[in-house]
């Protein structure tokens, strides 16, 4: 039997106590073991070489004991078809490897839509949503690939710091999509029907990936976002390694709310009013962005609840008839796949090898753009210079590139003065009551410009000086 508290002593002088839940879920078990190993590695002397084979053997023995006691819920019934390592070591420890567990649909042996599931855990753990949600998905007719991405925060020490490059996780999503695309026949995957489903940090990661994805074969058909970790996740991704991410103030470049555009895939959003980790106002701002970009979405906000999934009947109750109380969370994926696709796609501008070797880009290779693009079979296959070809009216078949989203750069304002000219002073005038002078001078008169006369009044009249933005 697995006791409620377990002491691990592998030639380590201080026992590590790990608290287990009951019944104990597999992911929580693995998570607790990972934390225990992390403690051992952290506290061990730098000269000591730990025998990881011994640790692995111990964990294997422990899992068998737990299995015999029936405390590892779902371990035997939820067995992946395959496990694929998709990254080099990284993460905070430098030893984390991203991998995917692949499960085939339980309702069909034919090619099926596939869900790439990104669990949450605040970017320092992977939570146990897997055992709850995967059965719902595979029983709903979907293949499922669960991505265990590399984590940029520590679960044990200084969790407020970014301890590795968070963008490794984006690379992991891309690599997972590539594995699914390259091995679609082996896993019965319909590559045109791959949906990203994320929870908390995994939902932020999902939305961020979808905001930057440009390769058609690696972009999702749709996405389902459950209580996305919007603000904190965005701050983390826009922070330097080693910094306290909550102090980051400039994080729009990593914020899915700021990145919604015409190419954002159809999206289903789920949230509960009682969620204190992701307040409702963050979700409503996100939803507003979808509306402003005319992007297809549905938003389900349930009363009460928290940062977790409520019984699905509660979601159905507020769905306006879109969902049924007998359904499961797989129904949200069904809804996502039924939403209209974007009318355009994000287009990259990848140069040919020749361009790269000759320090050329798509922008400055006009001869290639005018003579290649959709007239060259190799270019059509490889999709070189997609954006430049499209802008030149030579885009590839069945592809409309979205216009680049304009980035509004707010200029820094200053407190402007309103210094009158000598003539105004001699005639007891001020800038505000010298309308004719403002209309005929300001930025059109060198003498005024060099002395910045009536700076505020000129700005208010739309005749401000170059490079000067007055604060309102």
How would you briefly describe this protein structure?
By secondary structure, the protein is of the alpha/beta class. The chain has 19 helices and twelve strands.
Explain this structure.
The chain is of the alpha/beta class and 472 residues long. It folds into 4 domains: 77 residues, no CATH class; 261 residues, Rossmann fold, CATH 3.40.50; 63 residues, no CATH class; 63 residues, no CATH class. It is built from 19 helices and 12 strands. The protein is globular and about 90 Å long. The protein starts with a strand and ends in a 12-residue tail after the last helix.
Oligomeric state, counting identical vs distinct chains: single chain
Question: From the 3D coordinates, which CATH architecture of the largest domain would you assign?
Answer: 3-Layer(aba) Sandwich
| Mean pLDDT reading | 85
SS summary, helix count: 19
Alpha-carbon distance between the termini?
A: 70 Å
CATH topology type of the largest domain? Rossmann fold
Stretches where pLDDT falls below 50 for ≥5 residues?
1-28, 39-54, 56-76
Shape call? globular
Strand content: 5-15%
- Rounded to an integer in angstroms, the radius of gyration calculated over CA atoms is 28 Å
> Can you tell me the number of structural domains?
4
Q: Specify the biggest β-sheet.
A: 8 strands, mixed
The number of distinct β-strands equals 12
């Amino acid at each position: 039997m697995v006791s409620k508290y377990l002491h691990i002593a592998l030639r380590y002088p201080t026992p590590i106590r790990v608290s287990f839940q009951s019944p104990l879920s597999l992911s929580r078990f693995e998570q607790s073991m990972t934390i225990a190993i992390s403690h051992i590695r952290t506290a061990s002397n730098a000269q000591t070489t730990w025998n990881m084979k011994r640790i692995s053997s111990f964990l294997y023995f422990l899992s068998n004991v737990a299995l015999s006691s029936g405390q590892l819920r779902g371990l035997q019934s939820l067995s992946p078809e395959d496990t694929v390592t998709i990254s080099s070591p990284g993460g905070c420890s430098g030893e984390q490897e991203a991998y995917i567990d692949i499960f085939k649909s339980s309702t069909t042996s034919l090619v099926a839509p596939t869900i790439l599931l990104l669990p949450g855990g605040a970017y320092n753990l992977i939570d146990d949503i897997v055992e709850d949600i995967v059965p719902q998905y595979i029983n709903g007719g979907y293949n499922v690939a669960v991505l265990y991405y590399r984590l940029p925060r520590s679960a044990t020490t200084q969790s407020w710091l970014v301890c590795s490059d968070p963008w490794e996780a984006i690379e992991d999503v891309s690599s997972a999509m590539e594995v699914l695309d390259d091995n679609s026949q082996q896993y019965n995957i319909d590559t045109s029907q791959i949906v990203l489903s994320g929870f908390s940090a995994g939902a932020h990661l999902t939305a961020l990936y979808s905001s930057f994805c440009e390769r058609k074969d690696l972009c999702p058909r749709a996405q389902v976002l459950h209580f996305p970790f919007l603000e904190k996740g965005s701050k983390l991704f826009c922070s330097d390694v080693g910094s306290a991410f909550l102090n980051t103030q400039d994080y729009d470049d990593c914020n899915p709310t700021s990145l919604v555009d015409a190419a954002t895939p159809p999206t289903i959003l789920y949230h509960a009013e009682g969620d204190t980790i992701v307040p409702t106002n963050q979700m409503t701002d996100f939803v507003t962005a979808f509306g402003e970009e005319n992007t297809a979405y549905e938003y389900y906000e349930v009363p009460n609840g928290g940062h977790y999934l409520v019984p699905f009947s509660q979601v159905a109750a507020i769905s306006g008839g879109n969902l049924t109380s007998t359904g499961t969370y797989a129904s949200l994926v069904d809804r996502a796949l039924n939403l209209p696709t974007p009318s355009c796609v994000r287009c990259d501008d990848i140069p040919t090898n020749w361009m790269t070797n000759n320090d050329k880009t798509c922008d400055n290779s006009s001869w290639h753009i005018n003579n290649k693009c959709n007239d060259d079979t190799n270019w059509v296959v490889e999709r070189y210079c997609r954006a430049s070809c499209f802008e030149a009216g030579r885009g590839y078949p069945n592809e409309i590139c979205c216009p680049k989203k304009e980035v509004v750069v707010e200029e820094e304002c200053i407190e402007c003065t309103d210094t009158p000219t000598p003539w105004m002073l001699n005639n007891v005038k001020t800038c505000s009551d010298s309308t004719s002078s403002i209309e005929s001078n300001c930025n059109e008169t060198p003498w005024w410009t060099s002395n910045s006369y009536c700076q505020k009044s000129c700005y208010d009249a739309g005749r401000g000086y170059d490079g000067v933005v007055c604060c309102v």
